[in-house]
């Protein structure tokens, strides 16, 4: 099938603002969106810049705005994005500084991630082997552990667009993952971080995070659970 | 490669694809602002209650066709804002997120019924006005 691929380009050495460029690409319906970018980089314009590592939806490197929605370029097929003769557009994740073309500066995203202390905190002495959890205890956090930190959700959230300091769904999902972890004992500190003016209460249940998550995580559901936890334990 | 980092992306809200959840939120904001605007006009109108003549004059004006259309819009805004507010409460404090789209369309149907029943007097009055 014949496609027009529109890409938002930005070279900080030459451009003062991003601009769109179009490329004609012959593609197979079963190609991934990432294959289109590879084709252009390898055969048309080697200066095209984008992030990707594993190309199999595990590393979370190639989250970008595809056809107006945040997606992982390696996890969506061309046939789901356009018909023969159609157009597919690629832009960097919104509301983040652009380094070049489709590459954003992730520093702010990971600052927020670190703010919720995304590691196990416990006073219990280390056991001989691993810290055990029953299947029931794990079920509570299982879906939240599937986050690959691609940033699609946080950069899809209108609250992030309006307030760059808003913690965002990814960081708060991680807070949920530890607050509800049976082995963790620092829920109080984490709740203090998310129960703030830049935290939970700027989630207006818009569902863009759920819509954009390439792992199908119902982010809003877990953030709501975190809201209830904050209300019942802190007030 | 240069490491210049700039905040250059255009306004995302204008470029992002609008799905049910975001549409519901935008409409909630819009009706919320409209209702605040209405309240200001409403309270300002009540000021006339201190003077019988001014009050009667205002009430006659409120029976005009433009205000009937306005009543219709007001009813729509109130119903939407109230039901969507209920939807958000159910999502946040009862945990109904997985059903958010179904919830949106179900409450949409409830809204349509309320709108039809509640809006009938306004429509009838408007048709009456157009017929005479």
List the helices and strands and how they pair.
The complex is a heterodimer of chains A (235) and B (132).
Chain A: E1 2-9, E2 19-26, H1 33-44, E3 63-66, E4 69-72, E5 87-91, E6 98-100, E7 103-104, H2 107-115, H3 135-142, H4 158-162, H5 168-179, H6 187-194, H7 208-212, H8 219-234
Parallel strand pairs in A: 1-5
Antiparallel strand pairs in A: 1-2, 3-4, 3-5, 6-7
Helix pairs in contact in A: 2-5, 5-6, 5-8
Chain B: H1 20-46, H2 52-62, H3 65-94, H4 100-131
Helix pairs in contact in B: 1-3, 3-4
Characterization of the model:
The complex is a heterodimer of chains A (235) and B (132). Chain A has helices spanning 33-44, 107-115, 135-142, 158-162, 168-179, 187-194, 208-212, 219-234, and strands at 2-9, 19-26, 63-66, 69-72, 87-91, 98-100, 103-104. Chain A has 235 residues and is an alpha+beta fold. The longest helix of chain A is centred in the last third of the chain and has 16 residues, at 219-234. With 132 residues, chain B is mainly alpha-helical. Chain B is elongated and about 55 Å long. Chain B starts with 19 loop residues before the first helix and ends with a helix. Chains A and B meet through strand 6, helix 7 and helix 8 of A and helix 1 and helix 3 of B.
């Amino acid at each position: 099938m014949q496609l027009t691929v529109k890409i938002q380009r930005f070279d900080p050495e030459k451009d003062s603002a991003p601009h769109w460029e179009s490329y004609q690409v012959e593609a197979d319906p079963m190609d991934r969106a990432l294959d289109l970018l590879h084709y252009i980089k390898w055969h048309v314009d080697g200066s095209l810049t984008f992030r990707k590592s594993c190309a199999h939806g595990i590393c979370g490197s190639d989250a970008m705005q595809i056809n107006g929605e945040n997606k992982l370029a390696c996890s969506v097929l061309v046939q789901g994005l356009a018909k023969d003769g159609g157009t597919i557009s690629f832009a960097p994740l919104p509301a983040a500084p652009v380094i070049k073309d489709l590459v954003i500066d992730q520093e702010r995203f990971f600052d927020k991630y670190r703010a919720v202390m995304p590691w196990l905190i416990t006073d219990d002495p280390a056991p001989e082997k691993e810290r055990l959890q029953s299947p029931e205890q794990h079920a509570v956090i299982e879906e939240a552990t599937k986050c690959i930190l691609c940033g699609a959700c946080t950069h899809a959230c209108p609250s992030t667009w309006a307030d760059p300091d808003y913690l965002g769904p990814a960081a708060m999902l991680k807070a949920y993952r530890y607050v509800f972890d049976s082995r963790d004992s620092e829920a109080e500190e984490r709740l203090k971080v998310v129960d703030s003016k830049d935290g939970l209460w700027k989630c207006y249940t818009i569902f863009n995070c759920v819509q954009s998550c390439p792992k199908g995580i119902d982010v809003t559901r877990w953030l709501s659970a975190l809201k209830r936890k904050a209300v019942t334990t802190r007030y | 490669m240069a490491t210049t980092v700039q905040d250059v992306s255009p306004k995302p809200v204008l470029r992002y694809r609008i799905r049910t959840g975001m549409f519901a939120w935008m409409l909630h904001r819009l009706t919320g602002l409209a209702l605040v605007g209405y309240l200001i006009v409403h309270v300002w109108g009540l000021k006339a209650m201190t003077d019988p003549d001014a009050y009667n004059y205002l009430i006659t004006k409120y029976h005009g066709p433009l205000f009937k259309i306005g009543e219709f819009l007001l009813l729509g805004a109130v119903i939407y804002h109230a039901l969507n507010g209920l939807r958000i409460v159910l999502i946040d404090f009862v945990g109904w997120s997985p059903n958010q789209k179904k919830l949106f369309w179900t409450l949409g149907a409830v809204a349509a019924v309320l709108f039809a029943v509640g809006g009938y007097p306004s429509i009838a009055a408007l048709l009456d006005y157009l017929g005479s």
